[in-house]
Write a structure and sequence with these properties.
With 129 residues, the chain is α/β, with parallel strands linked by helices. It has one domain (3-127). The protein is built from 4 helices and 5 strands; from the N terminus they run H-E-E-E-H-E-H-E-H. It has helices at 3-13, 60-80, 95-108, 123-127; strands at residues 26-35, 38-46, 50-56, 85-92, 116-122. It has a 5-stranded mixed beta sheet with strand order 1-2-3-4-5, with helices on both faces. Strand 2 (38-46) and strand 3 (50-56) form a beta hairpin.
């Protein structure tokens, strides 16, 4: 994934409003193991301000079991690195099936704050990047 594509993805798909200078530094890593059960497809740091965790799954039970832990990992990393925001992206062939469950879990998390966001996307939307 090129930096230009990451910038387009962050701005156009996720709605990132970061200033242009933030996009001068982009670090994208693949296949990041958060735990034996949780593998991020990508972890992206944009300008040491925005952290993006991308997970690819169609498994509703995986979401039920692991979304709280994924959010906790993201918040902990955001806070430890003094980043501003963290966005969690779930890629699925059928995001409409996962969306209600994921959104309910996400909104009920006690640790949720206004600087974390959840996005559910079709894998095809992400594949263009």
């Amino acid at each position: 994934m090129s930096n230009t594509k990451i910038k387009t993805f962050a701005q156009e798909t996720l709605g990132c409003k970061c200033p242009e200078e933030v996009f001068a530094l982009i670090d994208c890593q693949r296949d990041i193991e958060l735990s034996p059960q949780i593998l991020l497809t990508n972890k992206i740091n944009i300008g040491n301000r925005l952290l993006i965790y991308i997970i690819q799954t169609d498994d509703i039970n995986f979401i039920k079991s692991n979304l709280p832990a994924i959010v906790q990992f993201g918040i902990k990393e955001r806070d430890s690195k003094a980043l501003n925001r963290v966005r969690f992206v779930i890629l699925s062939d059928k995001p409409e099936d996962i969306k209600p469950i994921a959104e309910n879990i996400f909104k009920d998390l006690a640790s949720k704050d206004e600087k974390i966001h959840l996005h559910l996307l079709n894998k095809k939307e992400f594949a263009q990047f």
